[in-house]
């Protein structure tokens, strides 16, 4: 007897944004847990300081949503030239502004764009959903490095399961 294959939608666009924003809330708490100087200067094993990693998320998130939404991908170099924050307060303000921007722009992604394949930033070809997932996975990966840094500094990181 052959099992019937049934298509199941496991996540909605609204659910995906909710998941992403949950990860962003947790990453924000990780940023905030760092002492100011360590956020910008502390590293281990040749990895970048956590502020540089957080700034990477900032440079990517909204441009990915814009690209998935429109099919037009701005050169990532434009975002690499963006002025880096030099204080924790500036970094968190930029983070919060982008969080609001994601809430505003994400719902405008046309449903068909999640499945359409683009060459994002001229670098990789993937459906929109996979490109968004890349941004989320990248944040989770680097947030893990932030947890290692915090523990090395003797600071208890926020519980990874608390995303509200």
UniProtKB/TrEMBL annotation:
GO terms of molecular function: metal ion binding
Positions with a binding annotation for a divalent metal cation: 142
Amino-acid biosynthesis found in the keyword field: no
Keyword hit for Metal-binding: yes
InterPro entries: DinB, DinB/YfiT-like
Keywords, alphabetical: Metal-binding
One Pfam family linked to the record: DinB
Family: Belongs to the DinB family.
Name of the protein described by the UniProt record: DinB family protein
Taxonomic source organism: Occallatibacter riparius
Lineage: Bacteria, Pseudomonadati, Acidobacteriota, Terriglobia, Terriglobales
């Amino acid at each position: 007897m052959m099992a019937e294959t049934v298509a199941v939608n496991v996540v909605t666009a609204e659910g995906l944004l909710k998941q992403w924003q949950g990860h962003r809330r947790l990453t924000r708490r990780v940023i905030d847990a760092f002492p100011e100087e360590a956020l910008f200067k502390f590293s281990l094993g040749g990895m970048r300081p956590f502020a540089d990693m957080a700034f990477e998320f900032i440079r990517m998130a909204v441009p990915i949503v814009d690209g998935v939404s429109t099919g037009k991908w701005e050169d990532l170099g434009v975002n690499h030239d963006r002025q880096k924050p030099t204080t924790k307060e500036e970094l968190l303000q930029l983070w919060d502004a982008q969080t609001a921007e994601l809430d505003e722009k994400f719902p405008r992604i046309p449903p068909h764009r999640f499945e359409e394949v683009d060459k994002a930033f001229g670098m990789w070809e993937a459906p929109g959903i996979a490109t968004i997932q890349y941004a989320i996975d990248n944040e989770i990966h680097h947030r893990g490095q932030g947890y290692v840094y915090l523990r090395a500094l003797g600071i208890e990181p926020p519980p990874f399961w608390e995303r509200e």
